[in-house]
């Protein structure tokens, strides 16, 4: 998940950790609610959609563009901008207008002391901690949580089924993840504070990307941060460790938008997409891009047409 420099070097001085993402959820979506605003913005000038630097988020960005385009709204997608530490300030600054986000990760980015883990509660809390001028629209059925996985061999060797079990192997296991996971609550910090887990070593790789998955396959790491919609988890038979203490919050896909652009037309289009897009469907789209190497834009457009959303 390498960063690509866009927006005319706007972010050249920013730090660049990868975005941690985030199982189907249930949501009630309507065309006018779900955020802190009431649809008084205007999309007449079009929207610029930004995405993080991994394939699923790119797919989501093009899905947003497709449904908005079908509603007669002009859009432009700026993919691969980088991490949340980059894209959220860009949204605040007006360089982009809309982002596909993940509830739990966004909430912890805004308030690292937040304790909500249930989707509805997090949605309510998000409306109170977002910077002025931004709002979240109703969250989608689709969810993509962070998770921590080990190989079957490692699970058998140490008796691992849950994150709590990692404590039995304190000082013996190597964790691989994106660099920022070393300092995030859903990462080294939370695993130690909530579960008492201490690793032998942390290797800065990527989250659910080719580096961390390759390292897990080779045995260079013992525990990998992967996303629940990653098709490699099932295909490799990796054991996803359960989270009995609810360290990892719900991660429903949620549109994060500048209120000035959030008119009723935008709300309705994104709500319609959110009702149709499930975790299972998102996993299928990820497979087409990650495994079959298809273009995210084409994959998104084909899927929208198949669902009669474009």
TrEMBL record:
The keyword Cell membrane does not apply. It holds the Pfam family OpuAC. PROSITE patterns: PROKAR_LIPOPROTEIN. The keyword Signal applies. Residues 47-305 form the ABC-type glycine betaine transport system substrate-binding domain. Residues 1-20 form the signal peptide. InterPro entries: ABC_Gly_betaine_transp_sub-bd (IPR007210). It comes from the Bacteria. One of its GO terms (cellular component) is ATP-binding cassette (ABC) transporter complex. Keywords: Signal. GO terms for molecular function: transmembrane transporter activity. Gene3D superfamilies: Osmoprotection protein (prox), domain 2, Periplasmic binding protein-like II. This is Glycine/betaine ABC transporter substrate-binding protein.
